[in-house]
Amino acid sequence: MQASDGNPFVAFERVQKSYDGETLVVKDLNLSIGKGEFLTMLGPSGSGKTTCLMMLAGFETATHGEIRLAGKPINSVPPHKRGIGMVFQNYALFPHMTVAENLAFPLQVRKMPKADIEAKVAKALGMVQMGAFGGRRPAQLSGGQQQRIALARALVFDPELVLMDEPLGALDKQLREHMQYEIKHIHESLGVTVVYVTHDQSEALTMSDRIAVFNDGVIQQLAPPADLYERPENAFVAQFIGENNKLSGKVEEITDGVAEVVLDDGERVSALAVNVEGPGSRTLLSVRPERVVINPDEARIAHTLDGHVRELIYLGDHIRCRMAVAGNDEFIVKVPNAAGQKHLAVDSHVRVGWETEDCRALDAA
Amino acid sequence: MAVTEVGTDAPGGEARKAKQPKPAPLLAADGTPLRKKLRQALMLSRMRAFALVAPLLLFILIAFVIPIFAFMVQGFYDNEYAKFMPRSTEALADWDGESEPTEEMYAAMVADLVAARDHPDRPIGRVATRVNRELSGTRSLFTSTARKAARMEAPFKDAMIKADKDWADIETWQAVKVASTAWTPAYYAASLDFKYTATGDIVRQSEDRRIHVTLFLRTLEIAFTVTVLTILLGYPVAWLMANLPLRTSNLLLILVLLPFWTSILVRTTAWIAMLQGQGVLNDVADWSGINSMIVWAELRFAELGDMLWPSVWQEIANRFDVNLAYDRLALASLCANDVNQVLNQGQGALDGLAQRAAADLTDCATEMLAIYNANGVEAAVAKARELKADAGFAGYGDERFSMIYNKTGTLIAMTHILLPFMVLPLYSVMKTIKPSYLRAAKSLGATNWVAFWRVYFPQSVPGIGAGALLVFILAIGYYITPALVGGQDGQMISNFIDFHMRRSLNWPLAAAMGGVLLIFVLFFYWLYDRIVGIDNMKLG
Predict the structure, then answer these.
(1) Domain limits of chain A?
(2) Do the Cβ atoms of B439 and A59 come within 8 Å?
(3) What's the average model confidence in pLDDT over A306-325?
(4) Where do the domains of chain B lie, and which CATH numbers do they carry?
(5) Secondary-structure class of domain A10-235 per CATH
(6) What is the dihedral sign for C-alpha B17, B20, B21, B23?
(7) Looking at this predicted complex, what is its ipTM?
(8) Residue B396, pLDDT above cutoff 60
(9) Does domain A243-362 have CATH number 2.30.30.40?
């Protein structure tokens, strides 16, 4: 699945894109996607992820660099000859055609015999459990149904690569989660390569084999979901994926990959030196809210800090606690609502701490 | 079930409902039926809404509906004769229109003529005009007989025939009978080249008097051609406007709207300056030699057609009146005219050219004259033949196209003026077609053309329909442009309506023609509704 071998299915090589000749929307993109992989491009809007997808689909031309599909450069291949399936943000189902006609369209333009077309359309409709809807027009379908048809249409001509541009953005939360599983299952059963673009991190975490986090036209980190969440490599990824507590400070010394950091208010903590330059440099510490321990066992945790509880939000399975720690007023701690858990009170002071490996010293962006 | 219990008589509602499929009317809390209550509640806002639109409604009624209705009725009603000639009208009403006119009819006519002459309004001219419309030449018959009527004595038949022998002619009386009928289909019949006879039949007009059907057909043809031209020209513009970045498309929109802000008279006049014989376009074409090239190509094309399929070619040339006939050489070409004259008339034409001032001579004439003076008639005619063979290609610079004061001029000017009415509906429809449709089609393997034709074009059809209907209906009743640049063969039906309104003062005929035009428009509206569906129309 991973594209570590020398012959990736899709490869971006030093790709740059500029629309106005003054700023780069995509800066020096290098990305290899393996055959059958589900890769998600995740990032805020304007981060260049959609542009990358459009370059791969052929609707935008790369200003510099090479894009290869199955080993062949496709920079100058027009979109209709690339044979890439695509699911659009608003489905782009042709409103003047029925569902069956929509699905037959890619087969008709490939001059397939009529009987084959009918068989394939029926099969594709069956795959998304929409067999009874062939005669309807897109406008007569609900959002979720349209989504399924768009998916079936992108797959009906058996492409090896399918691109999805925020396909679930217009659906409500429940349907979106359902469709995530469905897309995942179709991907697994067909074995197609999927490049998926989204700005929704939970969607990315649920579905992907690997996630490329985009920001400012650069891939910030390319890793499987678990790595991305647990081992972010820079402050942007830590902040963008999941909830994160930031503490800024200065590195004093690094020994065996563990940095001694003096926080801005003078407290000292140790953290994994992930992305710091060396003693004396500024750093941003990242701690996940669920990894913070309240009133920890002082013997196991070297450094504890004072936390001033500001706000408590009861969420059933856990309690979200906002407190001031080392000058950060937005320090969040998730306190599990477990048996024997001591209840916190607003305006009280507690000790907070964490394991050294749960605290990552990142770039001070 | 629960809903019925909202009413005050809720007990027993369940049981009643089980027996009766139709539920009892719902009652509001005070016992009045809910429907009535709702109407009362909405009454005030409905009244207020009506009061707001009432002025416009009234205006439309007074300024549009009533006049249109009155005008259409006018096409059926003309009492010009009956009003001033009541006695003969009554006498003629009993006449069958075929038998010999009776003495009573003559007597009534004389009495009417005397009364009309004495009438303070002096209506005899109007009466005569009315009868003259049915049978030309009767105008003077009426005015002259009216002068003599006072001195006539019984038997009036002989007296009248003595005054003018046309009174013995049954055709005269038939015309009078038709004219005396106030409620008459004669004008509607006339507007479609039919004739309403004294016996009450409707027959086709004699061939030399059939002009209206040709005119209607030409009007339809021009309107149709203009519609097609605006689609062809407007579609790409609308597409650009819908797909370019906002700044550029706004600029384009202003350019499209600019003609709207200019007087239609100014625009039409501008076309005259552009298109006339000595106009900008002809000057440029002439200076650059494009005229000659077109004429040359035209000739070669005609030769080729003549050579390959002579019969088919002749048919095409005849049917479309294509100006390619070999002996006509070029369109309105002075030079060609001289050459042809020399070829046809020989010495006579050459002598005629010699009479002209040297400055007035065309290049062809100068050349031919020089040879005529030096080597005689034979050599000059040979030169003419040579010139004709080289016509256009040599570029003698006198070929000028007649692009105005004919149908071409009408088509060009009308297409330009009506173009915005096509572009705007198209634009508003295309604006709603998301670019992702085209992208989707391409990603599914369609070439640019297939993507356009199968995905984009069908979605733009409502715009084409709306634009076409708008342009066609506007074009079918177009008046000012054909009047200014139409010449003879570029006149449309509205120009004739105007003629009958202002010149011949034949209002009922004008009304009838207008009525037929309105029926045409309604017919095309109906046709459009059947084919495309009026709900699919998007004007913006």
Answers:
(1) 10-235, 243-362
(2) yes
(3) 90
(4) 2-74 (no CATH), 80-209 (no CATH), 214-264+405-536 (1.10.3720.10), 277-389 (no CATH)
(5) alpha beta
(6) negative
(7) 0.83
(8) no
(9) no
